[in-house]
Amino acid sequence: MKPFILILSLTLVAPIVADAQLKLRDQNLPNPDNEPAPVHPVPHPRQLKWQETEFYAFFHYGMNTYTGREWGYGNEDPRLFAPTAQPDPRQWLEVAARAGMRGGIAVVKHHDGFCLWPTGTTEHNITASGNEYGRAVNIPADFAAAAGDLGMKYGFYVSPWDRNSEYYGSDRYVRDVFLRQCAELAEYGDDQFEMWFDGANGGNGFYGGRNDVVSVDRNTYYDIPNLRDSIHRVCPDCVMWGLGGESRWIGNEAGWAGQSNWSAENRGCAPAGNGMYGSEDGWIWFPGESDAKATDRGWFYHDGERVLSPERLFRMYLETVGRNSTLILNLPPDRSGRLPEATADSLAALGDLLKSRFGNDLALKARVCADSERKSGRHRNYKAGNVTDGDRDTYWATDDGVETAVLTLAWKRIQKVRYVELMEYIPKGQRVKEFRVEISVDGKTWERVAADVETTTIGYKRIIPLNGSTSESFGDGYDVRKLRVVIEDSKACPLISKLSVY
Ligand code: FUL
């Protein structure tokens, strides 16, 4: 009996012991480069690439452009879609590029269900539209081609909610309409960077003549895990926004993110109220995207609308991209299928502001040093100078356990400065919890600036206006001979990949 018990217990215990040894070995893997351990959660490589897009455009164009509505009911006659000229997605993207944006998302189906491409999933599409211009439209094809020519990133907004489809609310809608539409769109380019899945859904609509109220559970109805896997097989870098769970709604449509903004969250889909700030203890990487309008009416074009001033748009940029969020700024094409002149002008002026204010990085002329530097590894060093070497893959770090540290820039001559920009090396997680910025004119005495700004999180990118104001940020500026960033608290040793001063 005894040997049997021994054999039995060995068989049971052996895998557990082996597993424990494996874990132990993992922890003690050789680390010749002395790399800091990651702080979880960390971004997926596709989320990293997505984050680098930073600032991109939204183009709401479709049936609503011709009916003057924001949410079509779904019973619109397709012939109402009748552009007064050939829609020109290339012009849309050119305006965006001029503003300093790196890409764009085109709405190709809104809640009214009218599709801006010749889809096999519904007759409610441009092939039934009111004129030759309309019938010649294929927004996904033209948009993707233009983005390719201009070297910009691109993606599509396809509304899960469909107030036209007779099948909406049933499994058949998901299987034969929605998922197929996404699959068709994926075929327009395997290098898409984002697909946008709005959370609005369930409610009254035409629904093929049922004129009904349909409610669905948006977290389960659309078969998102299946969709996500399928899209990623075709478009490996495509982040699924909102319902897809790879990038979160910032929680308002006014163009601002929280000053403290973590890229982590505790939920798998668009959170209800915490979008602006994320969660310091979040267990999934779920970075924020701010969707905002560059015009003063709706998402779609409306007669009499006005475009916001370049200064207002610049402020939005500071309060989103400058606060660890991306900014997707909506520019509505008008009934000719082009962006109005006024939009193009204001966006060009925004591009000029961004270039003139962030075009000359004074940190590049400074001497950089830190009070603490992580011991170098065989192929990698963690010196302070890495923050100004223009390489996102190098960073300044401290030794493990050192969570407060000072990074200093010093110039030979006095400089006039207004903004400090910081970037964490986020592939190893978001870490910094608190910091402050100080300046010195004589090189000896220090004065804290931007004291009323919550200098808490950094994340992918943080821009601090030194006068503390995002509305009057381009003030007189400060004279400085030295400037320092004092990291006061961090989840683990801080990793800073960029420090710029403007
Ligand atoms: C919202 C939609 O309902 C709006 O119509 C618009 O598309 C906006 C970007 O998202 O939730």
Unique bound compounds: beta-L-fucopyranose
Query: What is Rg?
Result: 26 Å
β-strand number: 21
How much of the polypeptide forms β-strand, as a percent range?
15-25%
Largest sheet: 8 strands, parallel
Would you kindly provide a written description of the structure presented here, covering whatever features stand out?
- The chain is an alpha/beta fold and 502 residues long.
- Helices cover 24% and strands 22% of the residues.
- It is built from ten helices and 21 strands.
- It has helices at residues 2-27, 45-51, 63-67, 89-98, 132-135, 139-150, 171-186, 224-234, 310-320, 341-358; strands spanning 55-59, 103-109, 153-158, 194-197, 203-205, 212-214, 239-242, 248-249, 264-265, 284-285, 288-293, 325-330, 367-370, 396-397, 405-417, 419-424, 432-440, 447-449, 462-465, 478-490, 495-501.
- The strands form five sheets. The protein has an eight-stranded parallel β-sheet, with helices on both faces.
- Helix 4 packs parallel to helix 10 (341-358) and helix 7 packs parallel to helix 8 (224-234).
- The chain is globular.
- The relative contact order is 0.12.
- It binds beta-L-fucopyranose.
- Beta-L-fucopyranose is lined by residues 70-71, 198, 200, 291, 299.
